[in-house]
Amino acid sequence: KKEGTLYSFHSPGIAVFLLPFYLLGLALGKGSLVFLVRFGMSLIGTFLGIQIYLYAREAWGRERLALGLWILAALTTPIFFYSIHIYPEIFVAAAGLYVFRRLRFARALKTADYVLIGCLIASFVWFHALKYAFIQAPLALYALRRLWVRDGAEKRSRRLISFLAPAAVVAAFYFILQRVLYGSFNPTSVSWQ
């Protein structure tokens, strides 16, 4: 929270994700609150570990190598550390790797896949308005390229809309919330600076 402001300078994405765990922890008592919030974070760490394993297996086609990489990544820093502490980086890493893996290796993507991919890429702004733009922009361009090159012309417009429209809704909802809370659509208004 900045001095003289009502709200934190952190983007609300991680808080929104952890809200169910927090509410359950409050309902079960103070002793379970920290455990359940950390459990929520560990689910994201687990998901990231699975994505690392799947990516390695699909990229190299070697099960043992993929398993070794998963063990190395999941049980060492930073993933192990981020899996029990409240930082947005692990969510963006997990979602980003999932999106990249699906775009790179899926033989065919359905309209629902493009909806999910668009929402996940757009959700990065919820975790930091500016910080993840350098991951968000290339992933969005890669998704658009995949959509344009691999999908036939007859499916292209429907899938383009299914990718862009939900992503626009996710981003717009964030910026409307930011405008209500911070009085500005400017991405730097939610910043420690």
How would you summarize the topology of this molecule?
Layout: H1 13-28, H2 30-60, H3 63-74, H4 79-82, H5 89-105, H6 111-127, H7 133-150, H8 153-182
Helix pairs in contact: 1-2, 2-3, 2-5, 5-6, 5-7, 6-7, 6-8
What features would you highlight for this structure?
193 residues; mainly alpha; 8 helices; 75% helix; 0% strand
Can you characterise this structure?
The protein has 8 helices and no strands. The chain has helices spanning 13-28, 30-60, 63-74, 79-82, 89-105, 111-127, 133-150, 153-182. The radius of gyration is 18 Å and the shape is globular.
Entry summary:
The chain has 193 residues and is mostly helical. It is built from eight helices and no strands. The chain starts with 12 loop residues before the first helix and ends in an 11-residue tail after the last helix.
**Number of extended strands:** 0
Give the % helix. over 70%
Structural class: mainly alpha
**Major β-sheet profile:** none
Low-confidence stretches: none
Distance between the termini: 11 Å
- Which radius of gyration do the C-alpha atoms yield? 18 Å
Bin the strand percentage: under 5%
Mean pLDDT equals: 89
Distinct helical segment count: 8
